[in-house]
């Protein structure tokens, strides 16, 4: 594996209000992998870091040895977390030097009784993982006076119930984990109206003769949707110089092929009660699926929708099978979503494995036959973050 073939993904870290305050950078890390020592330098040198951070803080777990050889990064705000079990009181001088150089340090899973007050004063952040200890133990450790002034980050929060407990206990805390996908919302009339519009549009698009007028009538049932579709025609993606005043003219500019994509984005973006990062995650996955599919299966359509609709359960709080039952989608899209089968299913499987940091599940040997390397996949991932940011602005 070359320096460029180092994989990573980002995970949102949110505050009590579910707003994204930082990104946690997940990367392969094993004690026997000699290339891990190259990860940080590769990340900051070979990757467009601004596309990853989007002006937010990044959290990186690392080792003391790795951090000592890393030059200070003045263009980003990064917090480097060191595992408490890998530190001793004898490291105090080295840690002090790193702080003097300008590094911002955090300590992971510490026991307050293990280190001195002077030692803990080196760290501005403290991190606990619920995969390492139960929530009651985390709360008990954070009650210690030594940690009460630290910025708290709790990872591997799996359920909405855990998140609720931690929100109440640590109102200034920061949290990450699968709970982001599982938060419940109160669905209003608007999202139900969008679902009905989406179904009607899909029905119209399956007809032998597609009527732009009937498509426009579907969209014009909702003023907000109409406004955003018309507004889209003036974005950098379409660059229309015409005065577009109705949905039918907007459809002519956008094109029938992209219509469902944009209507679906408006629908998901209108769901209340969800953290903003969930929409970004769904859009990033859709772009990632589209980019991977373009290389593997250049003539295949539907990858964007597969990626986007794979997030439907997280937005609408229903099983995917129930949600897809009423949507007249192409069979290959439904099979990909429900069974991860077919070409689109294989794309979604690769993308989900990458996003989860389960890189060992990605068939790199098979992908190499199509000249897709680890570096290629990493670049597609970063590109998807950029594409999602641009699309989300419309």
From TrEMBL:
Entry-linked InterPro entries: HDOD, RNase_Y/CdgJ
A Pfam family hit: HDOD
Top-level taxon of origin: Bacteria
Domain HDOD, chain residue ranges per copy: 191-375
Coiled-coil blocks: none
Name of protein: EAL and modified HD-GYP domain-containing signal transduction protein
Organism: Marinomonas alcarazii
